[in-house]
Write a structure and sequence with these properties.
InterPro entries: 2-oxogl_dehyd_N (IPR032106), 2oxoglutarate_DH_E1 (IPR011603), DH_E1 (IPR001017), KGD_C_sf (IPR042179), ODO-1/KGD_C (IPR031717), THDP-binding (IPR029061), Transketolase-like_Pyr-bd (IPR005475). The chain is built from 32 helices and 28 strands. It has 1012 residues and is of the alpha/beta class. The protein is globular.
């Protein structure tokens, strides 16, 4: 009976066909929910098809073929046809029931089972591992998977048939095909020789497909159909002519740059010219599916070509970038030409539909742009109500070494399926140079392919030989269809080469001599493809030459026109314009900022919502009830703590139609359990309430979302989100302020210099919990010194501005750095961020212990109509009434203020010492500081901070104070001594340090006799 059990197993591969017949008339289909609905379940099969059942079916067929379903009849006839010679009588099957024939049935069945099992296993082996033997390297010298070993279960010679127990004579036998393959097309049976031939065509040619790790049957079947069905990879003459024209543009553009600027770096595309038609094909197919906005990100290789031939930037604007005499406009530092971005709306000539293309500017930190692109795409989808990604999509172009080596790629992939971060599928195109600068891939990655990181999100990976343009185009079509069908990521691995090394000035023969000897012999892909089409009669030689001459003429005319450009206008290279926000010249529509206070009625309304649950029959945690009751009590007293001040700022902006988005680790509750913007029902799983979205009728939406445990990727994402619209408050909060250091690349390369390099306005808000509270070196400092060092205001020049000093100074800075000490000032700075007539990044050092400090409360009087953000909080106690007798003025910022006023009160020095808080550190409030030091013109000046002397604010504020003082008076430092670590990990040491510098701050003789 074992042969029947084996036959039952092999029949599982045929179950889909069997079920189609045997479920007819039953009211059930193979996908009926009653058969199970888990995506992880095996395909519908004869799960209970035991050997006795198969035996009965077989004997019933032997008696009369009409006794079984037609599919079984076909199966048993094919099995009989493939049996060894002499084992099957030539008489009607029913005669086998008589006499000696019955004894031959087990041998026949066993051979049928073994052969069909072997063939089905063979088919699956090609589907799983065929890509390992695909002909992917255009140079023919490397294995794309870094492994020259051919899997032993793939048929590459007659000898390997033995691996499956098959003989050469079996090659001409016919086998029933399983439902998990489409190589037969309309045929359900094929000879083994033809099965192998079609499998090699599907999986071992110039395309290698990785997809069998995907745990979704429907998706796997979809991919099998696309690559296995005979005749699918065919192109019309018109499609081939279009492809050739695009190859001409891609190739001749690089040739033109090489002729005109042979000694310039341009990071050309030579060796992967197929990238241009590949991207255009993706855009064409996506446009057909309804996409009308595409946001792209890419490294420098090929960027100029993409700008010219995909985004369609004017060629003269590109060529003028090579002019060394081009003068910069007064718009910032600018950037090298192969880092610039672009935004362009045009007609897609294939679909005749409008499409907007945006290529994001990117620094040399190759993959840093990935999350930025995703964030901008998500924002556009959000504002357009495109909750399925049917209108807006993203394309990311990568280099192979960076794709495998840089962690932000992994972080970005892990955002792809998260509800608040998904862009509903990104098409990743890897320009696989098979080398990273001079580093061989064998020492650059541990994975077989550079694309293996994509497997973590079950993204299919299509490897393709970049010297086969038609194969590339087919893969691109399939990728675009995959994205529009399943709204999931997909990867195209263009296996190519670099014709001229890392850049045009580099000598690759130093390190890769054999590869570059082959590259020098390598025929250009345009020549190969044009010859092919000419030989096939698709185009004539004359037509091809005319196409080349036509594009060369376009380049020459643009080159002549480019010489008229005398000034570099970076504004022409904007990747995220805000046309309704600025004037036609790109300037703010005004240079004033109105007061940021609110009517008390509005404050009361927001406060009452913040202290209640606006949903019926909702059970919340007792601890949360206590917090809500505490808010209600504050409302009665007309005061706000930090969380309530934030609530009122956010809520008021929502009323005005400003979308507010708060993202970061644990932001919904708040790291320090103070926020609770999302309430969870304690009795019903996954039922939650966001009271902020119940404030007003027709309010803007509030998005608060816990992020993955990522800083680099998530901050880049939020930065991209903030680029999409100026009418949104986009905030990222670090779990602890010092955790921003793993996102330092985004801060250094995008946020701080973004406007100077790319004229890119951005109003993103970074909330960084900061304060020395004995929590150790990794939970104390948000490293304010780093942000202040990158602030561009001049420490040695007292600024003079016409009009509103505060607004003009903010307009001139690269970002704003604040350390608010009261909830009211926090409330105002958030509102000011939107009410300003321009956008600048805002860095807020937020508190930890002050979240619940009894003195860190603000009266509604500090938040009502007419009030605004206070850059400095002057002394308001007894010392301010008699400034002439004040002996010392202590300037400080943030939490240390509360420790200072407590110590001053204990020492009874409230008449002798004034304490002034700098709430806005950068740009430095020169005007207000000047007024304060002149008010206390006899007093000794102290800067007190809780951070170590080589950290914090001192190195930033000291030269600016001296500029205000015209170097006539000193300002002394009080705080912790210089150190390597930002804080001690010992509580006793922490308290001792605090006591020591507080004693110094109030020791009026501490600096007497010291020279300035």
């Amino acid at each position: 009976m074992s042969q029947f059990r084996a036959l039952a197993g092999i029949l599982r591969g045929h179950s889909m066909r069997w079920l189609r017949g045997h479920t007819a008339g039953t009211g059930r289909s193979p996908s009926d929910p009653r058969r199970g609905c888990s995506s992880r379940a095996p395909e519908p099969s004869l799960m209970n098809c035991g050997s006795s059942y198969v035996e009965e079916m077989y004997y019933a067929w032997l008696e009369d073929p009409k006794n079984v379903h037609a599919s079984w009849d076909v199966f048993f006839r094919n099995a009989q046809a493939s049996a060894p010679s002499g084992e099957v009588p030539e008489t009607h099957p029913s005669s086998l029931l008589q006499g000696r024939a019955i004894s031959q049935t087990p041998a026949l069945a066993q051979k049928v089972v073994e052969d069909h099992l072997a063939v089905h296993t063979l088919i699956r082996a090609y589907q799983i591992r065929g890509h390992h033997v695909a002909q992917l390297d255009p140079l023919g010298i490397l294995d794309a998977d870094l492994d020259c070993f051919v899997p032993s279960d793939l048929i590459t010679s007659i000898d390997r048939l033995a691996f499956y127990g098959l003989l050469e004579s079996d090659l001409d036998k016919t086998f029933q095909l399983p439902a998990t393959t489409f190589i037969g097309g309309s045929d359900t049976t094929l000879p083994l020789r033809e099965i192998i031939r079609r499998l090699e065509m599907s999986y071992c040619g110039h395309i290698g497909v990785e997809f069998m790790f995907i745990n979704n049957v429907e998706q796997c079947q979809w991919i099998r159909q696309k690559f296995e069905t005979p005749g699918t990879m065919r192109f019309t003459n018109e499609e081939m002519r279009t492809l050739l024209g695009r190859m001409v543009r891609s190739t001749r553009f690089e040739d033109f740059l090489a002729r005109k600027w042979s000694s310039e770096k341009r990071f050309g595309l030579e060796g992967c010219e197929v990238l241009i038609p590949a991207l255009k094909t993706i855009i064409d197919k996506s446009s057909e599916a309804g996409i009308d906005s595409v946001i792209m990100g890419m490294p420098h290789r090929g960027r100029l070509n993409v700008l010219a031939n995909v985004v369609r930037k004017d060629l003269d604007q590109i060529f003028c970038q090579f002019d060394p005499k081009l003068e910069a406009a007064d718009e910032g530092s600018g950037d090298v030409k192969y880092h610039l971005g672009m935004y362009h709306e045009r007609i897609n000539r294939v679909t005749d539909k409008n499409i907007t293309l945006s290529l994001m500017a990117n620094p040399s930190h190759l993959e840093a742009v990935d999350p930025v692109v995703q964030g901008k795409a998500k924002a556009e989808q959000f504002y357009r109500g495109d909750d399925k990604g049917n209108k807006v999509m993203s394309i990311l172009i990568h280099g192979d070494a960076a794709f495998a080596g840089q962690g932000v790629v992994y972080e970005t992939f892990h955002l792809s399926e998260l509800p608040s971060y998904t862009t509903h599928g990104t098409i990743h195109v890897v320009v696989n140079n098979q080398i990273g600068f001079t580093t061989d891939p064998r020492v650059a990655r541990s994975s077989l392919y550079p694309t293996d990181v994509a497997r973590v999100v079950n993204a299919p990976i299509f490897h393709v030989n970049a010297d086969d343009p038609e194969a590339v185009m087919y893969v691109c079509k399939v990728a675009a269809e995959w994205r529009s069908t399943f709204n999931k990521d997909v990867v195209i691995d263009l296996v190519c080469y670099r014709r001229f090394g890392h850049n045009e000035m580099d000598e690759p023969m130093f390190t890769q001599p054999l590869m570059y000897k082959q590259i020098r012999r390598q025929e250009h892909v345009l020549k190969k493809y044009s010859d092919k089409l000419i030989n096939e009669g698709v185009v004539t030689l004359q037509e091809f030459e005319e196409e080349v001459a036509k594009y060369d003429k376009i380049c020459e005319e643009a080159y002549t026109s480019s010489k008229d450009e005398k000034i570099l206008h970076i504004r022409h290279w904007l990747d995220s314009p805000w046309p309704d926000f600025f004037t036609a010249e790109g300037e703010p529509k005004s240079m004033t900022c109105p007061p940021t206070g609110l009517e008390e009625e509005t404050l009361q309304h927001i406060g009452h919502t913040a202290s209640s649950v606006p949903v019926q029959d909702f059970t919340i945690h007792p601890g949360v009830w206590r917090i809500l009751r505490g808010r209600a009590e504050m409302m009665q007293k007309r005061v706000a703590d930090w969380a309530l001040g934030e609530y009122m700022a956010f809520g008021s902006l929502l009323k005005d139609g400003i979308h507010v988005r708060l993202s970061g680790q644990d932001v919904e509750r708040g790291t320090f359990s103070h926020r609770h913007h999302v309430l969870h029902d304690q009795e019903v799983d996954k039922r939650f309430c966001v009271p902020m979205n119940h404030l007003w009728v027709n309010q803007a939406p509030y998005t608060v979302c816990n992020s993955s445990l990522s800083e680099y990727g998530v901050l880049g994402f939020e930065l991209g989100f903030a680029m999409a619209s100026p009418n949104a408050l986009v905030c990222w909060e670090a779990q602890f302020g010092d955790f921003h250091n793993t996102a330092q690349c985004i801060i250094d390369q995008f946020i701080s210099p973004g406007q100077a390099k790319w004229v890119r306005n951005n109003g993103i808000v970074l909330m960084l919990p900061h304060g020395m509270e004995g929590m150790g070196p990794e939970h104390s400092s948000a490293r304010p010194e780093r942000f202040l060092q990158m602030s561009k205001d001049d420490s040695d020049r007292y600024p003079e501005f016409p009009g509103d000093f505060e607004v003009q100074q903010l307009f001139d800075c690269n970002w704003i750095v604040v350390n608010c000490s009261t909830p009211a000032n926090y409330f105002h700075v958030l509102r000011r961020q939107i009410l300003l007539p321009f956008r600048k990044p805002l860095i807020i050092f937020t508190p930890k212990s002050l979240l619940r400090h009894p003195d860190a409360r603000s009266s509604f009087d500090d938040m009502t109509t007419g009030t605004r953000f206070r850059r400095i909080m002057a002394e308001e106690g007894p010392a301010s009434t008699r400034p002439e007798v004040v002996k010392r003025v202590i300037f400080c910022t943030g939490k240390v203020y509360y420790e200072l006023i407590k110590e001053r009160k204990q020492k009874d020095l409230e008449n002798d010492i004034a304490i002034i808080r700098l709430e806005q550190i950068s740009p430095f409030p020169f005007d207000l500081v000047k007024a304060e030091v002149e008010k206390y013109h006899h007093a000794q000046l102290i800067w007190c901070q809780e951070e170590h002397k080589n950290m914090g604010y001192y190195d930033y504020i000291r030269p600016r104070f001296l500029t205000v003082l015209s170097n006539r008076r000193p300002i002394w430092y009080v705080g912790r001594d210089p150190a390597a670590a930002p804080a001690t990990g010992n509580k006793v040491t922490h308290q001792a340090e605090l006591k020591r510098f507080l004693n110094t701050a109030f020791n009026l003789q501490a600096f007497e006799g010291r020279s300035f």
